[in-house]
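batch_manifest entry 22 of 60
target: C4-dicarboxylate TRAP transporter substrate-binding protein
source organism: Paralimibaculum aggregatum
requested by: lab member K.T.
priority: normal
notes from requester: please return tokens only, no post-processing; we will run our own comparison against the previous entry in this batch. if the run fails, retry once and flag.
--- input ---
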Amino acid sequence: MNMRILWASTALAMAAVAPAPAAEYNSNHFFAERHSLVRGPYVEFAEKVAEATGGEITFRVFSGGSLIPAAASLQGVRDGVAQVTYHAGTYTPAELPVENLIGNMAFYNTDPFVMAMASTEFSMTNPAALEEWRRNGVVFGGGYSTSEYYMMCNTKVETLADVQGKRLRMAGGAWSRFAEHVGAVPVSIPSSEMYTGLDTGSLDCAVTPGDSLDSFSLGDVVTSMNTLAIGNYYAGFLWGYNKAFWQGLTPEQREVLFGQMAYFLAKGRVEFSADVDKAIDSAIAKGMTVYKPDAALEAALAEFVASDEAALIAAAKERGVENPEEILAEFKKVVDRWDALLEGVDRTDVEALAALAQKEIYDKLDASTYGVK
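--- output ---
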């Protein structure tokens, strides 16, 4: 059956009914189940939500793109194929211009804990962001941030000269512009295709977090890694809910989801960092060489960061965003706020991080009106 027809027919069936007691709903993620953003924030999250609601909300977890492919996850949750899904905003720049605007500020602060919290708060409170979710038929539940992006290569890449001419898998947007800035060739492919690209030689490097050495098996095809921190990724959402589903919940049920999202926002981020460390250590033990960037490569990154904000603003205006300068200024304030809030907080303490997310984000939302009005 044609996939669009399948989605449409499924969506019509699901959209016709509001949530009912003891129903099973679909949750979707295109990463494999072993990934830190799936096993906690989706698999364990589903278990905890079912337990806390007495089985009134039960999510069936689809991972690895088995229900909805990566590029269609926004459409899939909007149409009711899934009631909650992960979505990477880079796949839908036209539909999510505000989210891609802030997502491309990936070099402003590369602390993944700060960016996970800040992107969540901003996307749940900023009027332009909220209007964007409303327009797309999605209720934003919570954000995330990957760890810092590194160059993981099948050849030696240490210096600026080494990077020039190399084919780099990039996440699009600012990352692609950075590749061009240093004389490399950006290649935009889904994360699921990084392994094949490196294995066949159609890629020289994948620019991705270190956990990909394990979660995407890149350790089998990567021989070197450069530790230049090329931003991190947080555009889109870790949990985006179908609007009809969300509006059919009771305020008490939404409060349960708020609490579980606060907890797994923290736990997913802690486990992501642990997975990065473990994967890099394992790859080094198997022979991967780690290079520090030379001074010229570091200088090129600094030069790019200083000049790229104008490109972000221009791209946002082309996509119809009003006052992108003001949006970026507000986003920076939120980022700076979280930078201060997280100063001195143990980045391995899930309970402390979750309590902070609950207090500073979710407790400030009204479960009777958020995503409803």
